[in-house]
Amino acid sequence: MGFFDYPYYDDLEPEAVPVFFVQLVLVIGALFFTIGMFKRWLKRKKRPALLLFLSFLTFTVAIGMFAFAIGSAILAGLKKEIPYMIGLGSFYTLMGVANIPLMLFASDVFEIDFKYLRKYIILDIGTVLLCALPNNYYGVSEDLQTLFSIRLYSTLMLLVTCVLIYSRIYSNAMHASKRTHDPHARLAFKYIAYSQISFIVSYIFGLLDTITFEFTDATGYTFFNYLMWVSAGFFFMFCYLGYIMPEWLKNRIDRKQRGF
Predict the structure, then answer these.
(1) Which of 3, 32, 21 is nearest to 239 (CA)?
(2) What distance in Å separates the CA atoms of residue 62 and residue 67, rounded to the nearest whole number?
(3) Are 205 and 225 in contact (CB under 8 A)?
(4) Per residue in 168-204, is it b (16+ CB within 10 Å) or e — as a string?
(5) 78 within domain boundaries
(6) Cα(249)–Cα(258) distance, integer angstroms
(7) So what's the pLDDT on residue 17?
């Protein structure tokens, strides 16, 4: 029996419907931010803006693939459709891929020597390959798994990799916020730092969701899954405030500086 040749499909859990709509909202918000980064790159033609756009475009596609997986399963009423497995696998793999341009962006903005990032990039590439292996068995029942499942270990590896990368960006962003005297830049760097913490928390909830399924008889979507997407929403919100900084936020900072 091959990886995609299963004798039957499981019914989709009812909890998938609200998760799907949460993902749709997140995809729309992420797409809005990604378009904003693309416009910024077109305006400035700078390498950091291009790298950030590529990173968030990949993040958006990754979440979109997850939403596609659940959406296709909702339409079919079955969880074991091939699009469901491919969608989940693409999500975890692309989340790792998005880290590479994000690290290069951090190297440019925070003037981090590339030799210090090389080890993170190598680790991230290894994690991407691990997440792409078919014996992660994304969405496959345990009794249909013909090989040893590495799902827990690849998810844990993705968490470790992202914690190392995002904590480095968090540290540099907070350090930059303390060094600058520009009130706009100071708050922008803080929001960038907060975004990294939000994403780390999101990955932790994702790992807890995987652990719950690995070691209990739980089915469907756990409460950790909802918390994962909420934390991801905070990530994009802080990124929008930090990287794009809308005019209303700049005006609020200016009024505060003038004492109004």
Answers:
(1) 32
(2) 9
(3) yes
(4) bbbebbbebbeeeeeeeeebbbbbbbbbbbbbbbbbb
(5) yes
(6) 14
(7) 83
- Give residue 19's identity as a one-letter amino acid code: V
Question: How far is the C-alpha of 32 from the C-alpha of 59, rounded, in Å?
Answer: 12
The CATH number of residue 25's host domain is 1.20.1070.10
* Residue 123 resides in a domain: yes
Instruction: Kindly give, in sequence order, each residue whose CB lies less than 8 Å from that of residue 6, ignoring residues fewer than 6 positions away.
Output: 80, 140, 144
Indicate the Cα dihedral angle 137, 71, 58, 240, nearest 10°. -130
- pLDDT, residue 212, reads 86
- Structural domain containing residue 239: 16-253
Q: How many structural domains are present in the chain?
A: 1
HEC-encoded secondary structure of 102-148? HHHHHHHHCCCCHHHHHHHHHHHHHHHHHHHCHHHCCCCCHHHCCCC
Residue-wise pLDDT for 190-226, tens only, equals 999 999 999 999 999 988 988 887 777 766 678 898 8
Rounded-to-integer distance, Cα 90 and Cα 80, Å:
15
pLDDT (tens digit, 9 = 90+) per residue, 112-162? 887 788 889 999 999 999 988 888 767 655 655 566 778 888 888 998 999
